[in-house]
Design goal:
The protein is an alpha/beta fold and 291 residues long. It folds into two domains: 32-118, Leucine Dehydrogenase, chain A, domain 1 (Rossmann fold, 3-Layer(aba) Sandwich); 141-270, Rossmann fold, CATH 3.40.50.720. It has helices spanning 8-30, 45-60, 76-87, 107-111, 125-132, 141-154, 172-181, 196-201, 253-259, 270-289; strands at residues 4-5, 35-41, 64-70, 94-97, 161-165, 185-189, 205-208, 226-229, 233-236, 245-248, 262-263. The strands form three sheets. It has a six-stranded parallel β-sheet with strand order 1-11-8-7-5-6, sandwiched between helices. Strands 3-2-4 form a three-stranded parallel β-sheet, with helices on both faces. A two-stranded antiparallel sheet has the order 9-10. The radius of gyration is 19 Å and the shape is globular. The chain binds guanine (GUN). Guanine is lined by residues 96-99, 121, 141-142, 170.
């Protein structure tokens, strides 16, 4: 039977609609407008696209959007001062520093200088610790979006075998914590994992977040499993014309879709959910700040 295609684009539109309704109520009933500040250092083209999208969708949801674009040579002290000012600005409820940062900046130091309650990325060490111990925290947006799609498709995830391929702080590790929180049996696989194919073949849920185009083939997928593809890789596509490119995920879509029970497409799967969850986290931060 053909796999169900999990429509992240439609789901994200629904989440954004709920966020916009919540924002309208906060304004009307309490005179509060949630505010999100995004800080971009340098001119990385992919980061510029993401930041533009985040700003646009923040405004569309009725929230205040502030962008700080700093040049690639910005000193650590200057960046920390920008963050300190945002920490102290009561009209800003969420702060996101777009990663990766230029090499001369200490990413951990910068992230940990964000007030934890405004850390809508959930990357601050306090939020990482709170998530790991099952306490109320800010949850990283991409894994949160994946979890929402999984819950929507399955209802309960309790007792399912889940494999997360990739151990990044942004996706792999928090994804594993969230699945564990939903009572899955979780394996984190990575570049040194032995017999990756066998590990993946045992899984009811496969989350691929490695950043390697089409690395998971269909014959690794247990029949009927759910495949969540976090990868967004740009490949040359000469078949579409000279100089053309296409986006592919970390799984080989056609063969994995043939084996899976459900699968997220690229584009239109996890990607749109990430920004929707960022908006939702900003509203959550605003509500917590205002009791
Ligand atoms: N770069 C790639 N993904 C992300 C993300 O989720 N948050 C931030 N801040 N930077 C990123």
């Amino acid at each position: 039977m053909a796999a169900t295609v999990i429509d992240g684009k439609a789901f994200a539109a629904q989440v954004r609609g709920q966020v916009a309704e919540h924002v309208a109520r906060l304004k009307q009933d309490h005179g509060i407008t949630p505010g999100l500040a995004v800080v971009l250092v340098g001119e990385d083209p992919a980061s510029q696209v993401y930041v533009r999208s985040k700003g646009k969708q923040t405004v569309e949801a009725g929230m205040k959007s502030v962008e700080h674009k700093l040049d690639a040579e910005t000193s650590e002290a200057d960046l920390l001062k920008v963050i300190e000012d945002l920490n102290n600005d009561p009209s800003i409820h969420g702060i996101l520093v777009q990663l990766p940062l230029p090499k001369h900046l200490d990413e951990d130091l910068v992230i940990n200088s964000i007030a934890p309650e405004k850390d809508v990325d959930g990357f601050h060490i306090s939020n990482v610790g709170l998530l790991g111990t099952g306490q109320k925290s800010m949850v990283p947006c991409t894994p949160l979006g994946c979890l929402m799609m999984l819950r929507d498709h399955h209802g309960s995830l309790s007792g399912m075998d889940a494999v997360v391929i990739g151990r990044s702080n942004i996706v792999g590790k928090p994804m594993a914590q969230l699945l564990l929180g939903d009572s899955c049996t979780v394996t984190i696989a990575h570049s040194r994992t032995k017999d990756l194919a066998d590990v993946v073949r045992r899984a009811d849920i496969v989350v691929a977040a490695v950043g390697r185009p089409e690395m998971v083939p269909g014959d690794w997928i247990k029949p009927g499993a759910t495949v969540i593809d976090v990868g967004i890789n740009r490949l040359d596509a000469p078949e579409k014309g000279e100089g053309k490119t296409k986006l592919v995920g970390d799984v080989h879509y056609e063969s994995c879709a043939a084996a899976a029970g459900a699968i997220t497409p690229v584009p239109g799967g996890v990607g749109p959910m990430t920004i929707a969850c960022l908006l939702a986290n900003t509203v959550t931060a605003c509500c917590r700040a205002n009791g």
